[in-house]
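Figure S7 source data.
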Amino acid sequence: MKIIFLGAARTVTGSCYIIETGKIRFAVDCGMFQGAAEIEKRNWETGVYDPVHIDFFIITHAHIDHTGLLPRMTQKGFSGPVYTTEPTGDLLKILLLDSAHIQEVEASWKNKKMQRNGRQPEILPLYYLKDAEAVGPLVKCRAYDDAFSPAPGVKVKFQDAGHILGAAILEVFIEENGTTTKLVFSGDIGRRHQLLMKDPSTISDADFLFMESTYGNRNHKGEEDSLQELAEAINFSYSRREKVIIPAFAVERTQEILYSLYLLHRAGKLPQDMPVFLDSPLAIQVTEIFRRYRSYLDGETQSLLKKGEDPLDLPQLKFSLTTAQSMEINEMQGPAVVISASGMANAGRIKHHLRHNLWRPGASVVFVGFQAEGTPGRKMVDGAKKIRIFSEDIAINAKIFTIGGFSAHAGQDQLLDWLGNFQNKKMQIFLVHGELTAQEQLATAIKNRYGFAVDIPEYLEEIQLNVDAPIETVKKPELLEPLVDLNTTLDDLKEKIEYLNNIRQNIQQLSSARKSEISELLKEADRNFAEVKARL
Ligand SMILES: [Zn+2]
Ligand SMILES: [Zn+2]
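Tokens for the predicted zinc ion complex:
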């Protein structure tokens, strides 16, 4: 049996693993790559998935970095079943429609820009609404703990991952030549004591474990501290009559923030005259789905709901569904809390709110989730002084808060504790869904504490899985992935700058209109250099 790592290999996004036996070929997750342009290019490389020859997908949870390329698969000929839990099925249908909408809008925006530039529009969206709609009928729902067989010789069981509504850890049993091999895919593992969600299930056995490592090198602050920090941000901007902007993923994070605001409201720490806007039609829909699946929520939430209390509601909560309502928030004077998507500030309405508020000294921006490399959110968290939004440089004068305690991911200690339940000392671990530094530190911690063998696979690496024999790489990723050739680019740039220097006199003699055009273009290039410098 062979596994191919098509994503979340030495990076967080793009989760997808293809398993091939002599008889079947199936995939776990089908995530979109998000972040740096170099990484996002992979979303277009559908050939490596060979969608027509995938028998079925098993999906751990609805987040786009685990589901976002399913419409690309249907577009390119995949028509098999997509197995997942019932809440994930509901969530992924609306998330994929939203994702397709974003793809279409962004492509048409870029095309219009090209036309205004006198060029031919040539950008195609990654996929269309119809491709996302085609996924819905393929979804087949299974309950936690209920083993099913998607193909002869394969048995799958979903266990609660405690990460977001419906999220699952997968136990996969594959029978080949009379022996059964057990693969466990952790999916994203939730943080214990997380609001709304139950704690992640413990698994006691596996031959091969594919484990997430998002926070492999750090722990989160406690929940109380995080709640206190949120109260501080609110207090900071309220006293300066400015807004608190919270970029939040529509699923889970938004609901957890609502729950936290409910707790602050109950403790008298949320001013009653500070409206809270949930400015995301998607998050509003998702919140409704959370209410529909009460039995999936933790005991505390269920008992509040039974008592008639709604921790996802507030007296001052306002929903903005339309674009006009969203724009009204920006015109509104005075303090407010604005929760909007996307969580990494790379798409959606949040960009407008940031443009209107980032430059204001009394405003605050509260990051509550993981920020992938290359996203605007990551730049802000890393202390950027300016950020480019809608082709405009916006100064960052607002106070930036990064509140790790709301994470839906287990921190290092919790990951290690979860691993402590595995009994098979010969288990081979593959770390996935993490940045390399976090993975290396987690790998060392695992080896020291438990002595398990740990491997950190690369993008497109293919590994033969043999129980009782060392794992064997059958295809090196270097052979498949073109290297980024920086030297040629730099030599090329040097030549161009020398050329400009040589013709300086000629440029001086041009008309002032033409000179100012050239100057604008060079300033644009200079801004790009500043961006390059900021990333080093
Ligand atoms: Zn997730
Ligand atoms: Zn994830």
